[in-house]
Design goal:
Radius of gyration: 20 Å
Shape: globular
Number of helices: 11
Order of helices and strands: HHHHHHHHHHH
Largest sheet: none
């Protein structure tokens, strides 16, 4: 005898998910275009790989300094308002750069200031936005799909890690855990940019790429040995569901 399961709801019927996905898509596209513009302008103004690396270092500072505040805010205040405010800061920084560029007043320091503003806003936006995802859909597989879609442009390992963090964390702690997770993930990206800039200025672009690639493979291998339980995980189970069952 076979057990029948209800047909999962259509994606288009999940209006909060669709709106959130469209907003994240637009926000991500805007951020990537802004990041390319800033990097291009910094290098055009300074012709320095080291200054280009400093862009990453500047983004690293808010992620470290604001981590605990971000987690507390995401768990105690309206997450939608936090995300909207952060995106408003992104728009303000983009407007500032545009006006300075048109007026011929764009400088290295102004770009670094804009990068710092964007980094502060992004430090609040990403963990808070990720904390919103599980509440958008009552159908768990769709929620998992959402988490995967958010990281689809990045490596598969990033999708799995973000999915694991969100699904394994109870909702009342999800903001703080997301903030700590963002600290490490965001720091790896921004410090990596700084490392790449320093190495490129010191040893050349080829050596910089080789150092980064070999280091990534070594870390992945070491972590597989140190944390075998993570290596053997083959499915996700929501933490809230486990707590209810117990």
């Amino acid at each position: 005898m076979f057990t029948s399961f209800p047909e999962p709801p259509s994606l288009v019927r999940q209006r909060p998910f669709v709106l959130f996905w469209l907003a994240r898509l637009a926000s991500t596209m805007g951020y990537q275009m802004l990041a390319v513009t800033i990097g291009w302008q910094v290098y055009e103004l300074t012709n320095s790989a080291f200054d280009l690396g400093l862009v990453g270092l500047i983004q690293f500072v808010p992620a470290v300094v604001l981590t605990l505040l971000i987690g507390h805010a995401a768990d105690h205040y309206d997450r939608r308002l936090i995300v909207r405010t952060a995106q408003g800061v992104h728009a303000l920084a983009a407007l500032m750069i545009t006006v300075a560029l048109l007026a011929g007043a764009l400088t290295r320091d102004l770009l670094f200031g804009a990068v710092f503003l964007i980094a502060c806003a992004r430090a609040f936006e990403l963990p808070t936005a990720h904390s919103l995802v599980p509440a958008l859909s009552t159908w768990f597989p769709l929620t998992l799909l959402t988490l995967a879609a958010l990281g689809a442009s990045d490596a598969v390992s990033v999708v799995i890690r973000f999915s694991l963090v969100q699904i394994e964390t109870p909702d009342d702690k999800r903001g703080r855990v997301s903030a700590i997770n963002y600290l490490f993930v965001g720091s790896s990206n921004t410090l990596g940019e700084f490392r790449a800039g320093v190495n490129a200025a010191s040893f050349g672009a080829v050596a910089s790429a080789l150092i980064g690639g070999i280091g990534s493979l070594l870390i992945a291998g070491i972590w597989m040995l140190l944390f075998p339980d993570l290596r053997r995980i083959d499915r996700f189970e929501p933490a809230d569901k486990r707590l209810t069952e117990t």
